[in-house]
Every structure is written in structure tokens, then in C-alpha cells.
């Protein structure tokens, strides 16, 4: 299934706009409470805007810039960016099977140059076989119809096109626990086929897969749990890359972290986990 990769929908423009507006508010030495009062909005609305969770009208951006006393040229740039927050990514066609908040992740994944992931229980979605997906969805969503499972599988397989897209394929750096290889999701044949697929994926130039052996002892992944670190390329005009994001798929919903201290803590955790891991080929061969 060919997809129009290269567009990030509204995710990245929303994130960029939110960051710029937060910087303007901080420069104006204004708290979110004060800004909300001046704009006659709720603090929750300011938070959603600054974290890139909602699209914005140009008029709203103009109002915020006026309150923050932003320079005229900045107002023009940000109102143009606001128009981009209305864009729709290819994944909106699957909105019926996308969990709340996960559309943000898909847009970030689409824009990323590298995804580093630690998985302690299952195979990462970008590396799953179709049969593994079907078995996982059937077991985890017993109420789902065959048609719904088909839609979920097609959506996940469409995301996998990132690994083979022309020009700038996504780099994936995955670290799995050995247990994740042997959970037997779908039975022996499905599990065997999944491990064989992982072995083939190891040979892609943009893919690195490592495994933490069961006998490795303590590593930071035992405390951190599963997480994904997304890193982004420079802009088309050579501007600085978007700041990294850590995504955590919590049981009650997604968590996105982007503060410098949070990113650094997860970078250190990832380095510690990698130090305990071995090349997946030594386990899968």
C-alpha cells in the first residue's frame, strides 16, 4: 500500500507553534494562569496549545501574540504556521481504530529520522509480522470484529512503510528483552515466523535490533518500562531539528515527555540497557 509519506499532517506544525507560543509567554514573564485570564480562556486550553495537542485559528494566534507583545514579523510567521495545524495526515483515514492521543505519535513517527525503542514484553509495532499483529489484536481485543482487526492490521502495516520509504527511510534502533521473543503470541508457527522476520530485519542498513538476555541481571529497563525516543532531522533550510520526544504507551493512555531533563534521563537509561544487550543475530541465528 503506497502512502504519501513526507507529510506529517498537523502534528509537527502544532508542536512547533505551541513551543513558539510558550517561549513568547515566558519572555513576557507571564504564567499560564495570567495568560488564560487575559485571553479569557481556561488554563487547560493554554496547556493544550503549548503542548501541540490542538489546532489553532489564525485569529487565536493573533490574540495570543497581542497579549504577549510579540513583534509583527513573528505574528505573521506564527499565523501562517497556524494554518498548517489544520492539515490532515494519511492516518486520519484510520481514525476509527486509532486510540485517543495516538494520532500525535503517528505524526511524530512520520517526521522522525530515528526511533529508539525499548520493549520488555512484545515486538515493536514497526517490526511485527501480519500474523503476529492479528494474533495480538485477537487476544487483546476479544470483542473486536474481524473487520476491525483487519483495519488495525492495515494501519500498522502502513506505518511500516516508513522503514522502506524512498530517500529518507526511518532508522529504528530496537532493544528487546529475550522474554519478548519467546512469549509465543499466536502459537508456535506465528512466533517462529516473527523471529525469522526479525532476523531478516537485522540485515537492513537502517535497522539495529538488540536483545537483553534473561541472565543479564539489573539494567535500567527494569525500572523504566517500555518507551520510545524519537529524534528529528534538520529543517529543509538547515534550521535546528525539533527537540526529541519520549513516548510512553501507558495502560491508561499515551504520555509524551519533551523536557531536557526527561530526555536526558531516558537517553542514559537507553545507553544502560544497550550495554546489557547483545546483537539480536546472536540470539536468532
Automatic annotation (TrEMBL):
InterPro entries documented for this protein: Cro/C1-type_HTH, DUF5753, Lambda_DNA-bd_dom_sf
Domain of life assignment: Bacteria
CDD domains per the UniProt record, alphabetical: HTH_XRE
GO molecular function, one term: DNA binding
Position of the signal peptide: none
Residues covered by the HTH cro/C1-type domain: 21-75
Protein name: Helix-turn-helix domain-containing protein
Organism expressing this protein natively: Nocardia bovistercoris
Amino acid at each position: 500500500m503506497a502512502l504519501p509519506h513526507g507529510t506529517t499532517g498537523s502534528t509537527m506544525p502544532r508542536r512547533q507553534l505551541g513551543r513558539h507560543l510558550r517561549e513568547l509567554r515566558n519572555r513576557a514573564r507571564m504564567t499560564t494562569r495570567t495568560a488564560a485570564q487575559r485571553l479569557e480562556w481556561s488554563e487547560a486550553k493554554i496547556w493544550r496549545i503549548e503542548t501541540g495537542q490542538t489546532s489553532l485559528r489564525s485569529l487565536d494566534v493573533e490574540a495570543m501574540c497581542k497579549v504577549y507583545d510579540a513583534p509583527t514579523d513573528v505574528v505573521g510567521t506564527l499565523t501562517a504556521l497556524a494554518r498548517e495545524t489544520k492539515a490532515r495526515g494519511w492516518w486520519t483515514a484510520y481514525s476509527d481504530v486509532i486510540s485517543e492521543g495516538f494520532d500525535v505519535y503517528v505524526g511524530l513517527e512520520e517526521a522522525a529520522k530515528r526511533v529508539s525503542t525499548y520493549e520488555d514484553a512484545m515486538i515493536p509495532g514497526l517490526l511485527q509480522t501480519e500474523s503476529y499483529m492479528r494474533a495480538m489484536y485477537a487476544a487483546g481485543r476479544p470483542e473486536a470484529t474481524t473487520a476491525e482487526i483487519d483495519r488495525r492490521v492495515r494501519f500498522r502495516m502502513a506505518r511500516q512503510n516508513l522503514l522502506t520509504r524512498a530517500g529518507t527511510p526511518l532508522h529504528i534502533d530496537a532493544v528487546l528483552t529475550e522474554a519478548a521473543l519467546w512469549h509465543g503470541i499466536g502459537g508456535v508457527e506465528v512466533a517462529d515466523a516473527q523471529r525469522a522476520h526479525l532476523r531478516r530485519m537485522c540485515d537492513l542498513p537502517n535497522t539495529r535490533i538488540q536483545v537483553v538476555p534473561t541472565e543479564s541481571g539489573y539494567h535500567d529497563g527494569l525500572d523504566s518500562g517500555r518507551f520510545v525516543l524519537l529524534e528529528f532531522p534538520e529543517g529543509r533550510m538547515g534550521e535546528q531539528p525539533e527537540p526529541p520526544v519520549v513516548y510512553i504507551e501507558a495502560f491508561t493512555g499515551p504520555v509524551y515527555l519533551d523536557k531536557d531533563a526527561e530526555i536526558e534521563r531516558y537517553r542514559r537509561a537507553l545507553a544502560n540497557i544497550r550495554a546489557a544487550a547483545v546483537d539480536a543475530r546472536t540470539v536468532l541465528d
